[in-house]
Amino acid sequence: MASHEHTDDSSTTRWTQATVYPDMWVDPDDDPRETDAEPVGEHGLLLEYLRTYRLTLEMKCAGLDAEQMARRSVPPSTMSLLGLVRHLTEEERHFRRVMAGEDAPKLYRTDGDRDGDFNGALPDQAVVHDAWRQWRTETERTDRYLAGVTDLTTPNAGHCDLGPEPGGRLRLRDVLLAQIAEYARHCGHADLLRERIDGRVGQ
Predict the structure, then answer these.
(1) Buried b (16+ CB within 10 A) or exposed e, 189-199
(2) pTM
């Protein structure tokens, strides 16, 4: 077992900052995901879902130190919050690689270590800072692409290993929905990881 794995959670007590609903992360009035802006059309709605899930990931990691960010769930899993940040950074690059056809090679995964995004999530503050820096860089680049392409039937310009049958085409709607689903899935993991780290619960 790696030295940064932590299994002693006997002193962890469930808690929340919310005062209105005890199972919420924060009170509705304090939730930065809630805005008065109304998404326009399907494109706007999908971007809003992506924005919300990205922000949820940030919220689930807030206030943790490097050891907590790198703390793994339960053996034999290598999953950690830091690993999720690195993993979703790779997914942002994958999105640009597939849709925009950009030269965006993998940052953490290699042929020799397909789980490098999780395996390299070490309890080092420099690693944490770099992970967030890379993630924000990639999300900004994805957003620039999405701001300039509003037609959800736009076909992919790059290669996708998980694409349709040979000769088929992916559409922006397909890839964007897959990106949202990836965040949603891992935000569920983040809920459990965070609760195990310090007991904080949230929707």
Answers:
(1) bbbebbbbbee
(2) 0.87
Give the model's pLDDT for residue 160: 65
Task: Collapse the DSSP code of 155 into the 3-class scheme (helix H, G, I; strand E, B; otherwise coil) and give the result.
Answer: strand
Report d(CA 83, CA 119) in Å as an integer.
8
Q: Which domains does the chain have, with CATH numbers?
A: 28-34+43-198 (1.20.120.450)
- N-terminal to C-terminal alpha carbon distance within the chain: 31
Contact indicator for 92, 135 with CB cutoff of 8 Å: yes
Indicate the SS3 state at residue 15: strand
- Tracing tokens 């904080």 back to the chain, one arrives at 200
Tell me: the pLDDT tens digits for 16-36? 888 888 887 787 888 788 887
| H-only helix segments in the chain | 41-61, 66-70, 81-99, 116-119, 125-148, 172-198
Mean pLDDT, the chain, whole residue set: 88
Partnered with residue 200 across adjacent β-strands are 15
CB atoms within 10 A of CB 60: 23
* Tokens found for residue 130: 């770099």
CA distances from 1 to 69, 71, 115, 176 (A): 17, 12, 16, 37
Q: Measured between alpha carbons, how far is residue 149 from residues 145, 153, 156, 176 in Å? A: 6, 10, 12, 12
Is residue 131 within 8 Å of residue 85, measured between CB atoms?
yes
pLDDT tens figures, 32-83 = 888 877 877 999 999 999 999 999 999 999 999 999 999 999 889 999 999 9
